[in-house]
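Researcher: Quick test of sequence recovery. Tokens follow.
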């Protein structure tokens, strides 16, 4: 009898544990009980829908066509390069920008097999369906950098230029020396250190870890001010105010297929090492830029400096006294676009 009771208890505990670690199914936009569809969308070749937003001059009149990829816990409305981009610069340069919800965010269908490669192919298909031409520009902010690195790896022939704004650099990229990644790893807050460990080594526990109440989890997902620099604290109200009208849309299909899957993909070992990439513009027909704040509490500046050292064809711009939210600073959009598109010297 005791043995049977123990077996029943074990089965019950196993069932409870399984339910605790299993993410709930996503609430697909347009499905019964799911959020409504409000954005224009394209249907990708694999059947998924990708929601997008256009701004700037009409694409048929544009000289520069840019695909923008948003960061962690954001959506198509979060276009940091346009936040401080003046109307005069948009009109005078002829800038068109299309942003899209990365899979699982906003109104884009989740993609359980999402990788940097699949994101790059999503970008290419979006550009083709919107008829942006044989070449276009890509720009990614923070976690959106994974898609830009993917574009540089898988569709470099389609790019006119690439820009990365405080792109997340993976501490498990093979090209980083162990002493550098070790320091970056252990300099993290304890809560983020454990979040990174779980997402990398035990990805199937990521949902449970980020929803359990026993231990502190991701400070990034919680928008903790502890990870912000002085400049970030000054710019945070501007960032929060810009998100207020649509914040509920960002995770509306479920936290797992948006922010939790983002963590897993950004932290795991990729199928390629960005530091093995070759110059996509050997004849100077385009350029690749990285902008990085030297007081960024989310992306260690030492990692970005090493990437720039390993890839001398990348034009690296380090912003003194700046944090992760530097694109929201006054006039930053104009400066970034003039450097990115016209080759002007970037001056902070």
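Model:
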């Amino acid at each position: 009898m005791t043995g049977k009771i123990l077996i029943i208890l074990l089965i019950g505990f196993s069932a409870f544990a399984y339910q605790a670690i299993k993410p709930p199914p996503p609430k697909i936009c347009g499905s019964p009980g799911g959020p409504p569809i409000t954005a224009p969308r394209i249907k990708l070749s694999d059947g998924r829908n990708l929601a997008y937003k256009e701004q700037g001059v009409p694409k048929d009149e544009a000289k520069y066509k840019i695909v923008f990829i948003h960061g962690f816990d954001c959506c198509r409305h979060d276009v940091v390069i346009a936040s401080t981009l003046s109307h005069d610069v948009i009109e005078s340069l002829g800038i068109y920008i299309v942003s899209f919800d990365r899979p699982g965010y906003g109104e884009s269908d989740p993609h359980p097999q999402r990788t940097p490669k699949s994101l790059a192919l999503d970008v290419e298909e979006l550009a083709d369906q919107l008829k942006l031409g044989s070449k276009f520009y890509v720009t990614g902010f923070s976690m959106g950098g994974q898609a830009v690195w993917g574009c540089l790896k898988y569709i470099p022939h389609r790019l006119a230029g690439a820009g990365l704004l405080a792109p997340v650099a993976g501490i498990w990229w093979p090209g980083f020396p162990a002493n550098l990644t070790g320091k970056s790893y252990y300099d993290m807050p304890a809560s983020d250190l454990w979040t990174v460990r779980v997402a990398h080594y035990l990805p199937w526990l990521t949902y449970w870890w980020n929803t359990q109440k026993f231990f502190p989890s991701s400070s990034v997902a919680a928008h903790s001010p502890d990870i912000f620099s002085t400049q970030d604290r000054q710019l945070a109200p501007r960032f929060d105010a810009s998100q207020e009208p649509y914040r509920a849309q960002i995770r509306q299909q479920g936290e797992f297929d948006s922010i939790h899957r983002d963590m897993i993909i950004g932290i795991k070992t990729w199928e390629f090492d960005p530091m093995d990439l070759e110059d996509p513009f050997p004849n100077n027909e385009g350029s690749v830029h990285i902008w990085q704040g030297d007081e960024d509490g989310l992306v260690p500046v030492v990692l970005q400096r090493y990437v720039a050292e390993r890839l001398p064809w990348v034009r690296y711009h380090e912003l003194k006294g700046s944090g992760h939210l530097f694109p929201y600073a006054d006039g930053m959009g104009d400066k970034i676009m003039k450097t990115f598109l016209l080759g002007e010297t970037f001056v902070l």
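The beta strands are 41-43, 49-56, 64-69, 95-100, 136-141, 159-165, 288-293, 314-319.
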